[in-house]
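Methods: holo model generation. Sequences were used as deposited, without trimming of termini or removal of tags, and paired with ligand SMILES retrieved from the corresponding compound records. Each pair was processed once, and we did not select among multiple samples. The sequence and LXAUTJHC SMILES for this entry were:
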Amino acid sequence: MASATPKKHKTKVLKFDSEEDVAVALAKYTADLSEKYIKEKGSFSVVLSGGSLIDTLRKLVEAPYKDSVDWSKWLIFWVDERVVPLDHEDSNYLLASRGFLSKVPIPSGNVYAINYQKSPEAVADDYEERLKQLVERKIIPVSNISGFPKFDLMLLGMGPDGHVASLFPTRTQRNEKKRWVTFITDSPKPPPPRITFTFPVINSASDIAMVITGAELADATKIVLGGGGNPDSVPLPAAEVSAENELTWFLDKDAASKL
Ligand SMILES: O=C1O[C@H](COP(=O)(O)O)[C@@H](O)[C@H](O)[C@H]1O
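and the model returned the structure below.
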């Protein structure tokens, strides 16, 4: 069962008894937003992360959602990607493909994987350019507030160090204010070469789910949501996430154990 704690404007914190309950609630939340945005604008743009998120999305590809969601209207992007071939075990595309995309009929032309056969910088440039073309063709709108592309839903995870996407506490990419997509060649978490959406793009999303499960995330969760700040005095990237409509934290008991 979930209990809701209002945090600040447009932020909701939902705590669940188990990871299984998070998975059930996340599926309903995502399916409800899919229906809402498809009704409002005819499509649903979803930005995936890698890591544990894909497994927690597992209920979305089961009944009743497998048949009730209009998958033909979904557009899929990645908030970050490792610069490796798409069939490499480190690829976020491969992870999503195995656990999610292969199980639902999203048209392959609506799935925006990276063109990985270049340097990390060139891969980031290429992904940004493709986003710009989608904005020009009015497939992705632009935020009236920020001027950056506005995705309907971002599904984000967080690392124990408080990183989101590939924006790490001790790396400068977290401070990027102009680019839509940037790159990193020395990610503290392997593999080192990656591309990532920047905060201006992340924070222009309509809705964001932060999906946080497991005891190893309890300390970072406490720092971000507990109001005490970071004792090491490096602000955690996860604390900088906001959404234009609503940011919802989905926490299981273990992740919420220090709140
Ligand atoms: O490296 C990454 O890590 C984060 C967090 O992953 P998790 O396994 O701790 O949930 C993930 O959100 C990001 O997309 C991924 O590239």
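The longest strand covers residues 246-252.
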